[in-house]
Amino acid sequence: MENWIGVGVWIVLGIVVGLCMKAIVKRPEEQPGHTVVLAVLGGFGAVVGGMLGVGLFHFYDPVALSLGGFGGALALSAIMAWVYRWGIGTMA
């Protein structure tokens, strides 16, 4: 049960990172609807990054509520949200 709570915390962390990325990286030509996409990308990136972080740093005792899990979730969700925000300006 503890691991599922950790995964839920990763998802919330990823959504917050995605919404913060929307506030940090401004796009004047932005269309409506990007907030939902950023929240989903942040949550997805956080889950994948959290699993990678737990796998790399806590291989023999995999616990989602760990420093490696939070670090991986934070890093990959920020990277995915930033790449999306950076990439929407180059398309069109």
Please describe what this structure looks like.
The protein has one domain (2-87). The mean pLDDT is 85. With 92 residues, the chain is an all-alpha fold. The longest helix is centred in the middle third of the chain and has 24 residues, at 34-57. Helix content is 74%, strand content 0%. Helix 1 (2-24) runs parallel beside helix 3. It has helices at residues 2-24, 34-57, 67-87.
Short description:
This protein has helices spanning 2-24, 34-57, 67-87.
Task: Name its key features.
mainly alpha, 92 residues, 3 helices
What's the structural blueprint in terms of helices and strands?
Blueprint: H1 2-24, H2 34-57, H3 67-87
Helix pairs in contact: 1-2, 1-3, 2-3
Task: Give the strand tally.
Answer: 0
The span between the termini is: 45 Å
Please state the overall shape, judged from the principal axes of the Cα atoms.
Answer: elongated
Question: SSE order in H/E notation?
Answer: HHH
Task: Provide the structure class.
Answer: mainly alpha
How many domains would you count in the coordinates? 1
Mean pLDDT: 85
- Spans of at least 5 consecutive residues whose pLDDT stays below 50 are none
Number of helical stretches of at least 4 residues: 3
> How much of the residues is beta strand, in percent?
under 5%
Helical fraction equals over 70%
Q: How does the major sheet shape up? A: none
Rg is 14 Å
